């Protein structure tokens, strides 16, 4: 047990080094010598990087766009994935096979093959240049992997429990809401995190679907700082730190639910 | 019925958030013109100034700029949006990349649109006009008649006691200067491992970079002129006069030059706005050095504004005609980013109050600039060549003949697809 903890702490510390350098680097004064990430240590930390980042690029608008997309996409994707997983379990062998085969085939489709259809669909639906277009894949659970996850979690519920709910008069929706959701809460939280990460960090879809500079997502917006000169890197890091706060806040709030459930 | 609640909720969210969904996608008469450009903040500032100026001009219209910093992302977005019938009204691309877009039918030829608006295309600089013409018709309006030059740091030259670059200076002068300028913390010359940087040296030595300029099937670097040019840079790499790969990773060469730690830097006009901001930098530009017994030459760098077939062509053409005007060309020239394609805008470009002092070098070079082939696969071939050249910059001990042969083989592979 001690060895396991030691290994965990070592890996965490290793992963934390670049993260710490990034956070500390954000407090270095922009343009104050060659950027090293830790070179301000021993001097007074500066908030200039944050001030410049907030004043030179529409950071708050980008965060608002990303948050809005996630607020729509994450719950829709979780519900869709859970429904599909429940259908795979309740629907008998044929439905189960259909869901699994369809999800498997969907995973084989290269994302780049969907770029043009996505633009066409967004244009036809009137979503062209609308952040909402980024949330529409949530109607298909965003990624087939989460459907597999939900199907596996639902499949671990004892059949007798599901049948008992049916005997009590619950329909498909009732079984899902009263039995499947409570008993797969942990999986659903994991699915929510996966979808959140996928949506928050997605670069190519927002790049292709959005054009308005003030309504970009965080991932695309930050690329505008990519060619910032090295001595000005504190500005880039300050922007990264600021835009990392919303998902960190979500994790801080949701970690109890994520880690405390049964499945 | 209850099972439909989340769907209804999602649908209502969709409906609520998509209000006015086609507002900016509509290229109708009253909406803003959408123009997609690529480049960093210094580069795109000129386009922002032009967009604002056009919006305020009589009969002008609001232009909404869509900035994609990375050029590859810019081209990918253009290709996908064109395929998805959602292309911007105008876009700006380099002549090396426009061919594929023009051949795919994504571009409305600019010349008829401009002629109808009284723009005399023949009054513009010849070299960029030729670069953006297909079958005798101008496809996109060139915004820039730039070419590769040698940026040089006056203070470093004086400190090292090296003669400053003069017209007609030779490879020997260039090499000697680069080596003499190299000392602790300072490198003699910055040159990116890219085919477009090497090309003027190969041309100057009497060589060609491709076997057929109209229909290239491969590069011809493994030739006496190509090897001569590669050997020049291999010697400079071995003398550590060129920033190493690690140095370039930690700080790009523009920044190194702007910070006064690079004696010379080979690039196009695009870096002028950045160097003007470096107030402590004393710099100027010079022509590309001439090969032994060779001729002076350089390579054209030009970006063109193209009218998209899917956008509002007439309104876009009005803006295009404005971009060709003396007012717009002067405004663009003042930004420092552009070498005007309209000779009437030269006074603004040559303003002695704005560095570089030898800005005329860009104008004088225009008569002898050459360009890379206008082939649809050329951009991909060039990218592959650059990947091979990067190996040479990382390890100067690799024989230049090996590098040259690899470049020729790899580009032939790309161009034959």
The tally of helices of chain B reads: 19
Mean pLDDT of chain A: 84
Q: Write down the Rg of chain A.
A: 22 Å
Number of alpha- plus pi-helical segments of chain A: 12
Largest sheet of chain A: none
Mean of the pLDDT scores of chain B?
A: 89
Question: Spans of chain B with pLDDT under 50 lasting ≥5 residues?
Answer: 1-29
Write the layout of secondary structure elements.
The complex is a heterodimer of chains A (263) and B (417).
Chain A: H1 2-25, H2 48-56, H3 59-90, H4 92-108, H5 115-124, H6 144-155, H7 159-167, H8 172-183, H9 185-201, H10 204-209, H11 218-223, H12 233-260
Helix pairs in contact in A: 2-12, 3-4, 3-6, 3-8, 3-9, 4-6, 6-9, 7-8, 9-12
Chain B: H1 5-17, E1 33-38, H2 41-56, E2 63-68, H3 71-83, E3 90-94, H4 95-103, E4 107-108, H5 110-116, H6 126-131, E5 133-134, E6 137-138, E7 141-142, E8 146-147, E9 149-153, H7 154-160, H8 171-181, E10 187-190, H9 195-204, H10 224-238, H11 245-250, H12 253-258, E11 262-267, H13 272-277, E12 283-286, E13 298-301, E14 303-308, H14 313-323, H15 326-334, H16 346-349, H17 360-365, E15 369-370, H18 378-394, H19 400-415
Parallel strand pairs in B: 1-2, 1-3, 10-11, 13-15
Antiparallel strand pairs in B: 3-14, 4-14, 5-6, 7-14, 8-13, 9-11, 9-12
Helix pairs in contact in B: 9-10, 18-19
Description:
The complex is a heterodimer of chains A (about 260) and B (about 425). Chain A has helices spanning about 1-25, 50-55, 60-90, 90-110, 115-125, 145-155, 160-165, 170-185, 185-200, 205-210, 220-225, 235-260. Chain A has about 260 residues and is an all-alpha fold. In chain A, helix 3 (about 60-90) crosses helix 8. Chain A is globular. Chain A starts with a helix and ends with a helix. In chain B, helix 9 packs across helix 10 (about 225-240). In chain B, the strands form four sheets. In chain B, strands 1, 2, 3, 4, 7 and 14 form a six-stranded mixed sheet that branches. Chain B is globular, with a radius of gyration of 23 Å. Chain B is an alpha/beta fold and about 425 residues long. Chain B is built from 19 helices and 15 strands. The model of chain B is unreliable at about 1-30 (pLDDT under 50). The chains are: A mainly alpha (about 260), B alpha/beta (about 425). At the A-B interface, helix 3, helix 5 and helix 8 of A face helix 1, strand 2, helix 3 and helix 12 of B.
